[in-house]
Amino acid sequence: MKPLFLSVILASASPVALAQVGGDGAAIRAASATEQAAMPGAAVSAPLPNAIETAVMNDWLEAELDQDLHKSVSEVARRAYIQRMFQPVWTEQGAQGLQDVAGDLFKHGLASDDVLASDLQQLIDQRFSTSNASEQAKADLALTAAWLRIASAISGGLGDEGEAVESGSNSARMALVSKKLLEAGQGHTLSFQDFESGYPQYAALKGALAQYREIRDSGGWLAISEGESLEAGDSDPRVPAIRERLSVEGYTDRPKDHTESMLFADADRSESVFLQGRNSTASGNRRANLFRNAAVTKTETNSKLYSDDLVEAVKTFQQRHGIEVDGVIGPKTLAAMNESVESKMARIAGSMERWRAQGAEDQRYIWANIPSYTVEGWNGDTREISMKSVVGMASRATPTFNDEIEYTVANPRWYAPVSIVAKDKLPKLRRDPSYAQRANFKIYDRSSGAEVSAYSVDWNDPSSARKYRLVQQPGSGNALGELKIIFPNQYSIYLHGTPSTHLFDRAERAFSSGCIRLEQPERMAEWVASYDSNESLDDVRDALSTTRNTRIDFQSRMPIHITYMTVTVNDDGTVNFWRDIYDRTEGIRQVERMSSIGQTANAQTSEATERG
Questions:
Q1: Three-state secondary structure call for residue 393
Q2: Catalytic residue from among 70, 188, 502, 515
Q3: Dihedral of alpha carbons 536, 495, 566, 400, sign
Q4: Do residues 498 and 560 make contact, with C-beta atoms less than 8 angstroms apart?
Q5: Where in the sequence is the active site (predicted)?
Q6: Residue 496 annotated to the active site
Q7: Which of 102, 497, 536, 554 can pair with 521 through a Cys bridge, CB separation 3.0 to 4.6 Å?
């Protein structure tokens, strides 16, 4: 038995258990599991509590969870059993509820096989159908371990955030774990909602996952065959399939096959007109056939037309997939249409996992998402500010991390990093040293700190990038624009403006050397300052009204999350699937089944069904 076990029992046991402790102060003892089981109303005979006590005290839970969960989690489970005086946690009703939840973990974006290490049905049989107390005890503990694994997976991890200092919310979270574990075991409503990420995007993604599961269960969509790019007004046999494909995700109304009704209406009308002029059944039938054939031709021609309404639907599709919004169905748009529904579901699940990794939600924070080229300011469930961004090119990718904003600088100087000087500036200075003056750079000798002339430096020497510091002065051409927002980090990444504002008109904006350029940096700085103090907001505005280089320190620290989410959800619930610009996910998977030329997906599916 572990040292200080008595004190742990006294600290963790239920009031009933504490009532069994001697009251004379000289010979304090805790009731054994056997004694507790013998009390009136005990539901389980002594052998099972004894077997559970033996397993718990022999560190069964620690051994089972060691590689998966923080040690504090197994300690919470240990205390839960001590609180119950080693009575089993799980009833049949509770175990069945656990199995039901485990069977639909994918609604949380999780795969059951990745979360659970044991077959729950086998554990249930072992717990309630065997007579061996030791086997029953291990099964009860294994069900507890399964519940803890699920709670940990849904929450993004249970336990301390660091070795030296426990997080401020750790005690509350651990108390919640114990409470919810015991409730689940007793068959109360089993829900892991309390353990889910509280970030609004997580809940929105969960809804999106349910939506795309329904699409998958309804058959998904068929791939569109390759061909020439389509522009407004073009006619192409693939158009009906494109219209059907877009309707599945709600970009267009589901197409209806009006051909049959049009044919009969035209045929009846033509036959009636003809018979009024000529009382000839044979001639009337021939005339009706001519009208019928003409109607078929007209309908087929219209169905193949890349019409204005479909162009608008394609533009919306392009906007939500990070593609240039031009209405042209080219290779990128076609590839996005041909991504399978299973692939989209996997990407939604991946983004949910990344939100879980953010930890406990912040009340106010900046969210900079790389694939969507956006930076947003959130207050609770409200997106209060949003703007376009430019991120690092693939060769100089913007890293993902969390930090806290400390200060902002108006009219900043830009201290060009050695890597950028070597790659970008040296070639320009070799061709023309006057580039330094035109671009408003001052050059300093790093060894002495003295300012030097660009004409006095041998720019052909590769080491000059390390020997000399290039500092661009504030001004309209400054690479950082009017303002930068700083959160000191190991990557030297920060938010800033840019003189190259034309880049924000592009759909794909991976052009920087790693830092994140903002479309409206002054608005973002004012938003941050507005939650710091009135003085900070005034200071930011005053500094921006001048050309002086000014630093404004914030009294409070606003969190910033730089993420790589390839799926985001708009306020109206519409879903965006961004391009994987850094190829960080497992890759986009294409639909394998191809839609026939000139035929809608519905028609092809119907034919396949009829053929059996």
A1: coil
A2: 515
A3: negative
A4: no
A5: 496, 515
A6: yes
A7: 497
Q: Which two tokens stand for residue 87?
A: 């009575």
CA distances from 433 to 123, 233, 357 (A): 76, 53, 48
* 36 CB-side CA count, 13 A: 28
- The two most distant CA atoms of the chain are separated, in Å, by 121
The reported pLDDT for the residue numbered 118 is 82
State the sign of the Cα–Cα–Cα–Cα dihedral 430, 433, 436, 442: positive
Mean pLDDT of the chain, nearest integer:
84
In the residue annotation, 515 being an active-site residue is answered as: yes
- Short-list 423, 395, 375, 381, CA closest to 523: 375
Query: What are 393-438's pLDDT values in tens digits?
Result: 999 999 999 999 999 999 999 999 998 999 999 999 999 999 999 9
> DSSP of 418-469, one letter per residue?
HHHIIIIIHHHHHH-TTHHHHTTEEEEETTT--EE-GGGS-TTSTTHHHHEE
What pLDDT sits at residue 39?
A: 42
Output the pLDDT for position 69.
85
> Which amino acid appears at position 262 of this protein?
M
- Cβ neighbours, 10 Å, residue 587: 10
Contact 443/457 with Cβ under 8 angstroms?
A: yes
Own/partner contacts of 462-465, CB < 8 Å, gap of 24 or more, are 462/422, 462/426, 464/426, 465/418, 465/421, 465/422, 465/425, 465/426
pLDDT band at 585 (very low <50, low <70, confident <90, very high): confident
* Cα atoms in the 13 Å half-sphere on the side-chain side of 97: 19
From the candidates 108, 321, 496, 561, which is the catalytic residue? 496
CA atoms within 13 A on the CB side of 264: 3
**Cα gap 214→220, rounded to integer Å:** 9
Judged by phi (left if over 0) then psi (alpha if -120 to 50, else beta), residue 201 lies in alpha
Rounded to two decimals, the pTM is 0.82
3-state secondary structure 456-519: HCCCCCCCHHHHEEEEECCCCCCCCCCEEEECCCCCCCCEECCCCHHHHHCCCCEEECCCEEEC
β-strands 468-472, 483-486 pairing: unpaired
Work out the angle between the directed axes of helices 133-155 and 120-129 (0-180°, nearest 10).
Answer: 150
Contact by Cβ (8 Å): 151, 158:
yes
pLDDT at 117: 80
**pLDDT beyond 70 at 298:** no
Provide the residue type at 377 as one letter. G
Exposed e or buried b per residue across 63-72, where buried means at least 16 C-beta atoms within 10 angstroms of its C-beta: ebbeeebbee
The pLDDT of 54-73, averaged and rounded, is: 88
